[in-house]
Amino acid sequence: MNSLFPNIEFVHPYFLVLLLLIPIIGLWQRWKNKKTESFFTLPSLESIQDIKTIRSRLVPLIPLLRALACAAFIIALARPQLALKEEEVKAEGVDIMMIMDLSSSMLAQDFKPDRLQVSKKVAKDFVDKRPYDRLGLVVFAGESFTQCPLTTDHRVVKDFLDNLQCGLLDDGTAIGMGLASAVNRLKDSESKSKVAILLTDGVNNAGYITPNTAAEIAQKFNIKVYTIGVGSMGKALSPISRRSDGKYVFGMARVEIDEELLKNISNMTGGRYYRATTAESLEAIYAEIDQLEKTEIDVTVFKKYSEEFRKVLVWGFGFLLLEILLRLTVLRTLP
Hints:
By secondary structure, this protein is of the alpha/beta class.
């Protein structure tokens, strides 16, 4: 049966043995009818031998419809299921917290349209490349908080990334606070690999936990930290003040990134430091991190089934109803 229908599986296949009864009962019924047939003699059949009526053509359908109805009911009893999907997966087994800087300098326009929008887009593309990992999101400026805890629902992670904007937090750059928040989410993970990706464009100037202290805690819990410094070399059109209505005033400002600090954090935890000066280089950095963090776990087979017995039952009742209608109308006989 599976060779004929490779995508069909039966929950109770032993019921299919009952299909053998259908031809046996059919042969027995034919033999029984022959024994009870009545005969009478006619002088000649020439006058009626070519007569073909609708009734004579439909008579053979009665046993056929009955057999089809019985076959459908037996197949439905075996409970057929259609295998919609069968997939072998080598899952990555990595828990990843993304740490995103939301300080006002992330609105600098050396990236188009600005650093934050490009960073969000590249991060979303990275999420799409990690379908079997748990990912989460921490944001920071002058303070930090967990925007999204570790989850396999990547749609939620991308929705949070979409909604990120500067100005939601007190301005500043609390790198240590952002990293500490991510470590707090990763420290109890039982994953084979725990990773934090810290993206910033500034110098630590806020928070009550220093970046080095946060890095030491990450090291203790075997959390690897990749650090990314975002911003072109020299000067960039950046927010330099904020008006009373909340809108930013832009002007040329020097790009300041504490690369020594970011290198130290990554070196302490076994990660790497990257400098992204263009959108293309940021994409390449995330692609490299994606390739570096591959930890295969056991192969898992996912199967999704669609119950098909209801459709077979409908066909069975359809055949049965058609037989009854023929018997009560066109093929009706007198008692």
